[in-house]
Amino acid sequence: MRMDELEKGFWGYKKESVYKYIASIEERTSQKLAEKDEKLSKLENDSLRRITELESSLEAAREEIERLRENQVSVFTTLLEAQRHAERLKDESVRREQKAQEDLKMAVQLQTDRVDVYSAKVHQLREAIRDMLREFESEADLMEQSAAALPPQAPNVSLGSLPAQPHAADQEGETWKRLPSM
Fold first, then answer.
1. Which residue pairs from 122-130 have beta carbons closer than 8 angstroms and sit at least 24 positions apart in sequence?
2. Cβ distance 6 to 17 under 8 Å?
3. CA 89 to CA 81: how far, in whole Å?
4. φ, ψ for residue 13 (rounded to 5)?
């Protein structure tokens, strides 16, 4: 309704027409206010819902951050423990390597000592064999000289019937006594 739609009376606008106009304006205003209230209520509900969603997201993010912090602490602790374990393994490895080297040195030294002992025994044996060969050679020279001095027409005598020379047998026995035992 517009102002020109108001009915005019003798003294101005008719009361009833003004009341209707005011009522229609009030009705339209109330309707617009109701629509605005409904929109505001809807916006408020949407905002509350959004706030609730954001709060739940915030709480989930806080929980995730706390879980990540705990995980970070766990990872850091595990990393430190792994570093300590690696150091212990490295130290143990070095210790075992040193012990193995010491054991190897001892074994090599023991074998070297045994080889030296065997070498000394071999040297003694060689010396004893040389002495025996010299003795045999001198004995053989003596026998050759004795055989050359025998008359050519000597009777046939077997070696078994010849008397044994006691001093040659004694020398031979002494030579073997001087050989080192292995």
1. 124/179, 124/180, 125/179, 125/180, 128/175, 128/178, 128/179, 128/180
2. yes
3. 12
4. -80, 150
Instruction: Evaluate whether 129 touches 178 at the Cβ level (below 8 Å).
Output: no
Q: What element of type H or E holds 182?
A: none
Contact 155, 111 (CB under 8 A): no
Burial class of residue 179 (count of CB atoms within 10 Å of its CB; 0-12, 13-18, 19+): middle
Cβ-contact 169, 119 below 8 angstroms: no
Residue type, 4: D
Tokens 């809807």, located at residue? 42
> Which pLDDT tens digits describe the chain residue by residue (182 residues)?
455 565 565 566 677 777 787 888 889 899 999 999 999 999 999 999 999 999 999 999 999 999 999 999 999 999 999 999 999 999 999 999 999 999 999 999 999 999 999 999 999 999 999 999 999 999 999 998 888 887 766 555 555 555 555 555 455 555 555 555 55
Amino acid at 70: E
Region for residue 12 given its phi and psi (left: phi exceeds 0; alpha: psi -120 to 50; beta: otherwise): left
What pTM does this model have?
0.39
Residue 175: how many other CB atoms lie within 10 Å: 16
- Residues 41 and 35: their CA atoms lie apart, in Å, by 10
